[in-house]
Amino acid sequence: DGGITQSPKYLFRKEGQNVTLSCEQNLNHDAMYWYRQDPGQGLRLIYYSQIVNDFQKGDIAEGYSVSREKKESFPLTVTSAQKNPTAFYLCASGWGEQFFGPGTRLTVL
Amino acid sequence: ILNVEQSPQSLHVQEGDSTNFTCSFPSSNFYALHWYRWETAKSPEALFVMTLNGDEKKKGRISATLNTKEGYSYLYIKGSQPEDSATYLCASHRGGAQKLVFGQGTRLTINP
């Protein structure tokens, strides 16, 4: 069953802590993306990767980091430098048309 | 930054009625326009990918049109059903095929 998985579904973090969100795909896509959604706003691009071992900043990369060591995996770390990390995070993959995971809702306590 | 705008932000429609909403995008350097349906607690699901001016695509009761010269696309739903309740997102490409810019979505609620 091809698709994109994200874990966990809900995540709670204390202020000052880093946290890593998982994204895995078995669609054999080279390109992968991380988006953030806030109420009343569209999806905003955080980071994207076009190929293994390469990634680029999107529109709101500050306070986030990523890695792309394997084609299937594109984890996102929300660092303590991210000023307002509480949001819904979506991972996607694909070139042109993008396929989305179910998302992770991160809440900072 | 490329701006993609959707209107209205939310819409309540009676079951059985037809409805439509709009996506506007900069017409210069157009590559493709995407429509997604995003149901609560699910992943966004692709509805249409449109590339040609004047294009019209249909999927069951849902159809979409594209005007690349003036920079807008309409999504139509005929005979709305409760299962059509979702947020509908449009997105246009920026700088090639790999990056999409999304509108803020139209949240559609079908009242039984």
Descriptive key words:
A: mainly beta; 7-stranded mixed beta sheet; B: 112 residues; mainly beta
Account of the 3D structure:
Chain A is globular. By secondary structure, chain A is mainly beta. Chain A is 0% helix and 49% strand. In chain A, the strands form two sheets. In chain A, strands 2, 4, 5, 6, 9, 10 and 11 form a seven-stranded mixed β-sheet that branches. In chain A, strands 1-3-8-7 form a four-stranded antiparallel β-sheet, with no helix packed on it. Chain B contains no helices and eleven strands. In chain B, a hairpin with a 6-residue loop joins strand 9 (86-93) and strand 10. Chain B is globular. The mean pLDDT of chain B is 93. The chains are: A mainly beta (109), B mainly beta (112). Chains A and B meet through strand 5 and strand 10 of A and strand 5, strand 9 and strand 10 of B.
Q: From the helix content, strand content and strand pairing of chain B, which structural class follows? A: mainly beta
Share in helix of chain A: under 10%
Class from secondary-structure proportions of chain A: mainly beta
- Can you summarize the main beta sheet of chain A? 7 strands, mixed
How many DSSP H or I helices of chain A? 0
Shape call of chain B: globular
Give the percentage of residues in beta strands of chain B.
Answer: over 45%
Kindly provide the radius of gyration of chain A, computed on alpha-carbon positions and rounded to a whole number of angstroms.
13 Å
Largest sheet composition of chain B: 6 strands, mixed
Range of strand content of chain A: over 45%
Report the strand count of chain A: 11
Mean pLDDT of chain B: 93
